[in-house]
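User: I'm preparing a small set of examples for a lab meeting where we compare how different chains pack in three dimensions. I only have the primary sequence for this one, and I'd like the structure in token form so I can line it up with the others. Please keep the answer compact; I'll paste it straight into my notes.
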Amino acid sequence: MTSTLVANRYARALVDTLVKPSPLAPAPPAAEQVVEHLRAFAASLRESAELREALATPSVPASKKRQIVDRIARAAQMPPVVRNFLLVLISRRRMGALPAIVDAFEEMMDRYLGVMKVAIASARPLTDAQQEKLTEGLAAASGKRVWLDTRVDPDLLGGVVAQIGSLVLDGSVRGRLDALERRLSDV
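Assistant: Understood. Below is the structure token output for the 187-residue chain.
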């Protein structure tokens, strides 16, 4: 089974847990909170060779691995759904897929919630008014809630470049100059 397939399967299970909770379970946390805790745990795994080795080594008993994860989850005050999810990953030996699972989970939740993430690059930092105008325009065009992820790219000279998934909308001065250069070279 490919890692993408595994990541999607576990992400889907987590999405289902949040959007269709059991009537006996406590209210699930917000998706952002789940992502934050899972990313923090994944960062701990990445940064701590000792933790990574303890959870990946076959000679460490599964019960010991569950104790380690449980202790970390409780110390970090993770919601029960996050702690239980991490324990499932341990028991199924899928902890190595955690970063891909979190990415897939975040993407699925965005689709479920009708959120569109847009990466914006601009030559200078955008003002709040500019960000609001971009957000409103993109929301009106897409019919979705828009979350901007802005960064400064001085190579653009001016204007903005918006990336929505694999679609890139180039409204930068650099992009216009490059297009003009291509047209002139075809003449």
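A couple of notes for your slides: The chain has two domains: 3-110, 115-186. The first strand starts at residue 115 and ends at 122.

User: Perfect, thanks.
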